[in-house]
Specification:
The chain has seven helices and no strands. The protein is mostly helical and 125 residues long. The radius of gyration is 16 Å and the shape is globular. It starts with a helix and ends with a helix. InterPro entries: Cyt_c-like_dom, Cyt_c-like_dom_sf, Cyt_c_BACSU-c550-type, Cytochrome_c550/c551-like.
């Protein structure tokens, strides 16, 4: 029993550490949908949303939230429909101040970048 628990903890630790240190993939181009893109054409072609998706990748958010926003670590990292359950203010506050396992980004991102991510995530309903 002790070996099983130790092995499980080790596997979780290795997964978490490898995900946090993973290099950000290059943004997709061409006709493919970008990671986390909404299914509405306006969101796919909205320049601000494209920039927000690139920022999401550049800041390595996908290491915990996944390429498709479905979440990879923890119980609350699924962002696919976050705009249906959180206000813009709540989303922005979470990005700025972190919490619940999420790091603080107010010193890593500008207010404009936080607002860009907030608008993009709030559109996910």
């Amino acid at each position: 029993m002790h070996k099983s628990i130790s092995l499980l903890i080790l596997m979780l630790l290795v997964t978490a550490l490898s995900a946090c240190g993973a290099a950000s993939p290059k943004p997709q181009t061409g006709g493919d949908k970008s990671p986390g893109a909404s299914s509405t054409p306006s969101a796919e072609t909205n320049e601000a949303f494209v920039k927000a998706e690139e920022l999401f990748q550049k800041t390595n958010c996908i290491s915990c939230h996944g390429v498709d926003l479905s979440g990879r670590i923890g119980p609350t990292t699924n962002l696919q429909k976050i705009g249906a359950s959180k206000t813009k203010e709540q989303i922005a506050d979470q990005i700025r101040n972190g919490g619940g396992g999420m790091p603080v980004y107010k010193s890593k991102l500008t207010d404009d970048e936080i607002n860009l991510l907030t608008e993009w995530l709030f559109s996910k309903k």
